[in-house]
Structure formats: structure tokens, C-alpha cells
Specification:
- The complex is a heterodimer of chains A (118) and B (120).
- Chain A is mostly beta strands.
- Chain A is built from no helices and twelve strands.
- Chain A has strands spanning 3-5, 10-14, 19-21, 24-26, 32-39, 46-52, 59-61, 64-69, 74-79, 88-96, 106-108, 112-117.
- Chain A starts with a strand and ends with a strand.
- The model of chain A has no long low-confidence stretch (mean pLDDT 91).
- Chain B starts with a strand and ends with a strand.
- In chain B, strands 2, 4, 5, 6, 9, 10 and 11 form a seven-stranded mixed β-sheet that branches. Chain B has a four-stranded antiparallel β-sheet with strand order 1-3-8-7, with no helix packed on it.
- The chains are: A mainly beta (118), B mainly beta (120).
- At the A-B interface, strand 11 of A face strand 5, strand 9 and strand 10 of B.
Chain lengths: 118, 120
Amino acid sequence: AQKVTQAQTEISVVEKEDVTLDCVYETRDTTYYLFWYKQPPSGELVFLIRRNSFDEQNEISGRYSWNFQKSTSSFNFTITASQVVDSAVYFCALSERWSMNRDDKIIFGKGTRLHILP
Amino acid sequence: GAVVSQHPSWVICKSGTSVKIECRSLDFQATTMFWYRQFPKKSLMLMATSNEGSKATYEQGVEKDKFLINHASLTLSTLTVTSAHPEDSSFYICSARDWGNGERPTDTQYFGPGTRLTVL
């Protein structure tokens, strides 16, 4: 069975600090996708990244970076030099391998509410 | 990127009435759409998978007679909450699966902006 655990329910940091959001996942499949989504107060989900299980390279996109460690089943997300606009709920998610014949669903973690204080 | 719309964005209705929520993929065709429900300060819970031209697949614990899903075209799926009650008040989010093309990334799910349902 698939499971995504975001142990940090809520985090508050002061603007310009770096912050890391933890994500640990469980799956029996050897091929899967991992995601991070941002949900600002407006409610709309914003796609941040998708990572294939075969690609363990870390990724950096501006102030965002992701650390994928298959050995520990973790996919952590770091925001560098945080800004007030980063305040939102962040969801880590997992999907087993999609194919033309399977409609594998995305399973979401419970989310981490991030407060960036000015 | 691809765009998914939902209508209405919010709705208030009386207990006992039915409410229909539309989910549209605006610039791509989606053979598969998903419906999620989110309670305040909670995570997204998948309700059902909607496949164009066939019956939806419901997750365990979701009443199919209560939440009717129709996916009649490649760009539209609807969720009807029948005989709504206050406990059905929630934020409903749909997503559409895009297999991609040369310009868009392959095999990605795009989410709609959500519909906030309040049942009085």
C-alpha cells in the first residue's frame, strides 16, 4: 500500500531563513512518481515538481530545491531565503507507475502548513 | 501549461438539494479525471476516478449514489452531490490527466481551482 508521511504539521520561520519540509513515503512498486504541490490560501493547487523513481538527482529551481533519497524513502523540499509569499500548505504526494492501462491515483500526505513571518 | 477549470467556484445550497460541479480541461483532452475532497486544514482525499465513456471507479467508503460522476466527453467531467447535507460541505477539487504532447510534459495531472460547497 502507498503512504506519504509529512511529519511536520506546521512550521513558522522568519523571512529569509531557509526551511526544509520533510516527506517520507512507502510503496511496494519499484517505479513511481513523487510530487510536491503548493496550496496557497486561495485553495488552488500549484504543481511544483514531479520526480521519477529512477531519477535520484537532486533538483534546484530558483529558491526551491529537492533532495530525493531512495535509500531512506525520502523526498525533502527546501526553500532557501524564504519569502512571505511562500506561506502556504505544501503537500508531498506519491503515484505508482502510470501506463496507458492503469489509472494510478496520486496519494497525498497530510500537508505541512508553512508560515513565513515578516 | 495545461489548464483545468471548475464551475462553480463556490456554491451555497439548502439541505436536500442536489449540486452539480463541472470540471473541464481547457486545452487538452483528458480520458481520465479525478475528484478529490478536502476538509478544512486537511489533506486531499481521492473520491473517485472518472474515465471517459465508462463508469467511475469510487474509493472505498465513498457512496456512488451520493456522488454521481459523469465523464461524457474528453474535456468534461461532472460531480453531482445528490440530496446534499451539511456534512457534505467541503472543498471539491478535480484533476485531469494529460498525456502530453511535444510542448507539454508527458503524463501529468493538472488540478482545477476547486469548488467550495456549503450546505445550509
